[in-house]
Amino acid sequence: MLGILLSIALVVCVFSLIITFVIMKKQQNKELDKSMNLTTAKHPFIANPIIIAYVLFPIVLILGGILWMYYS
């Protein structure tokens, strides 16, 4: 059961990450928000909080699964 849930979560994360990159590429040539942080403007992928969440969520999910199996 846990393996199925982890597989579904992985598929959702990968799909969401791909869609995010596609949308970011489309928005790259358009006018940027004037109140945007300079770091985010220089590094749109690394400084994007959504990308950070996509990287951290699977790590936290796997660690949670390991802890769940260890304490169950």
Largest sheet: none
Give the structural class. mainly alpha
Instruction: Report the mean per-residue pLDDT as an integer.
Output: 76
Tally of separate helices: 3
The share of residues in extended strands comes to: under 5%
Shape: elongated
Tell me how many strands there are: 0
Radius of gyration: 16 Å
Distance N to C terminus: 13 Å
Helical percentage: over 70%
In quaternary terms, these chains amount to single chain
Give the ordered list of helices and strands.
HHH
Low-pLDDT parts are none
Protein name: Short-chain dehydrogenase
Keywords: Membrane, Transmembrane, Transmembrane helix
Transmembrane segments: 6-24, 45-71
Blueprint of the fold:
Layout: H1 2-27, H2 38-42, H3 49-71
Helix pairs in contact: 1-3
Structure description:
It is elongated and about 50 Å long. It contains three helices and no strands. Helix 1 (2-27) runs antiparallel to helix 3. The model has no long low-confidence stretch (mean pLDDT 76). The longest helix has 26 residues, at 2-27. By secondary structure, it is mainly α.
What is the compact description of this entry?
The model has no long low-confidence stretch (mean pLDDT 76). This protein is mainly α and 72 residues long. It contains 3 helices and no strands.
Main traits of this protein?
single chain, elongated, mainly alpha, 72 residues
